[in-house]
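Cast an eye over this sequence plus tokens and walk me through the fold:

***
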Amino acid sequence: LRHGMRSMKCQLMAASLCVMLLGLSIATLSTVTRYGLHFSTISNVALESSSYRAIYHAAFYIGVCLSMTLILAALLSAVATVRESRFLTATAFFCFALAFCGLTPAACWRYMHSTEVEDSILDVYDLVYEEVRRNGSSSRRHELTIIHEVFLCCGKYSPLGDTAAVEHKTCPGTAWAAGRDCLQEMRGFLKKHMGFVSTLLGITIGFTVYGMVLTSFLWFSIRFSNNLDRKGKYTLR
């Protein structure tokens, strides 16, 4: 039993390190999503009623909560492994389970609403672009220029064919030289970003389940080990 516990403790320590790194990765990704130039630029020009703003804020706060839960679970499981504490092991298991309950809905939402983030960002761009096209002196022109600078793109294809004036006014030199369609550039950027999010969620869920299994087995091992150590020992009263 002791030999099995040593092996389990080594596995749990390694898993705890991986979970901590994953928690830090989620925290970093949430911060980039919140304060990154591409996402913050779209958020600054989006209307208060835009669905993008709700997704934008929710992604940050959910990511921070998940990362804190994962880091706490990793720390507790590492301390519980060293001290062989049943209370700390049970607490670590609870934190892993809590993180799993948060990660699973996040992953399901990612796959069931895979185009919602993309659609909300493209809707923001379309709204700003159309306002500038209809009114060349609109205050939105500066906002559209910033979007073109950040995404290094210039305008979009329109079946109306009257976009040249907008592009001349809102495309700076670098964006004009790139000459790429903004809708395509945004789709490409979001595809890479969401692909990384999906990969990170999948790996984190796997390690969370692994941590739950290890902490539960360690809890039972500590309990049975303590019972075996006391076997045959009696106290006379």
